[in-house]
Amino acid sequence: MRKLPISFFHLLSYPKNSILVTSEDREGRANAMAAAWHTPLSVNPPSYGVAISPKRATYKLIVESGRFGINFLPFELLDSLHTCGRTSFNELGEEKIRRAGINPIRGEFGAYILQEAYVSFECSLEDIVKVGDHDLFIGEVRSLYLRGELRGNIIDVERVKPILYMGEDHYVTVDSRSLRRGRILQGIH
Amino acid sequence: MRKLPISFFHLLSYPKNSILVTSEDREGRANAMAAAWHTPLSVNPPSYGVAISPKRATYKLIVESGRFGINFLPFELLDSLHTCGRTSFNELGEEKIRRAGINPIRGEFGAYILQEAYVSFECSLEDIVKVGDHDLFIGEVRSLYLRGELRGNIIDVERVKPILYMGEDHYVTVDSRSLRRGRILQGIH
């Protein structure tokens, strides 16, 4: 086991599923930001957190509108997601989303979600927790949409290939053949 | 696109890499809890967050000791990880970790990490953010250990198979053949 510089810590926490966070400006123009730093936070109330840098256009847009979308795209659209991660709404406006080839629509709660997503949530902004060079946006999940397939209650990874971010512009998806149920070990072994 | 009950939201956010959070009681006895709700939060300071239910033994242990470990295990040890997710330190004490077949050691900062992990961090507890039925523990990363292999600056998924949680006791790993670099789309397509 070797010790590494702490600056590597986030790269070593990957893979993480990479999502698009949808937002809007005051004129209702849609934006989408790629994010890999996000997680459920609570079942009741249904709370979802995403870390956002104050440097990103999305930060201000969500603060102003009080709502956002969380969108999971299939692996074949990773260049669309990556384009949203590497271009800026501040420079391109709605052209950003057009270049990425994705289509925002309004959900029932009024936030933008993406037609291309296999799962989308709409969230209301409940809190912003100051951390460091990113802040954590905590949203309450207000609606949930599914385009992809489930197997029982879980995403059917034989049919839905999620996008996992590896760091340094690299992405990977899952090996559906490896899916298996965990067993509880009973003895010392 | 169909609307689903909001109670599905966390299942639909999977896969997430599943980790073991290591902690200790006042006698220095080690515990490990499986967690899938965790994320980097900031590069500077290096901050990592993990959502923990107050019902879990780990919650109190970390509050008391002020430190914890974040450990990423290889896919061949998913039953070890799953055992830590489905048994309780409150009932089993150190026997929990023995049943899981994992070996805690002290890191440089004094927190427990796991010999079997391909990556481990030690964290100091900086803040607990109340959310709902889980709270977010925010740690500052104090040390970083690597047993697995890197390719450039990222985890070499051809050699290191991470454990991804799918919900409902199911796990999957990545398809290393799918690894690729994202491209930035330039035009409308």
From TrEMBL, chains A, B:
<feature type="domain" description="Flavin reductase like">
    <location>
        <begin position="11"/>
        <end position="155"/>
    </location>
</feature>
<dbReference type="GO" id="GO:0010181">
    <property type="term" value="F:FMN binding"/>
</dbReference>
<dbReference type="InterPro" id="IPR053310">
    <property type="entry name" value="Flavoredoxin-like"/>
</dbReference>
<protein>
    <submittedName>
        <fullName>Flavin reductase domain protein FMN-binding</fullName>
    </submittedName>
</protein>
<dbReference type="Pfam" id="PF01613">
    <property type="entry name" value="Flavin_Reduct"/>
</dbReference>
<dbReference type="InterPro" id="IPR002563">
    <property type="entry name" value="Flavin_Rdtase-like_dom"/>
</dbReference>
<dbReference type="InterPro" id="IPR012349">
    <property type="entry name" value="Split_barrel_FMN-bd"/>
</dbReference>
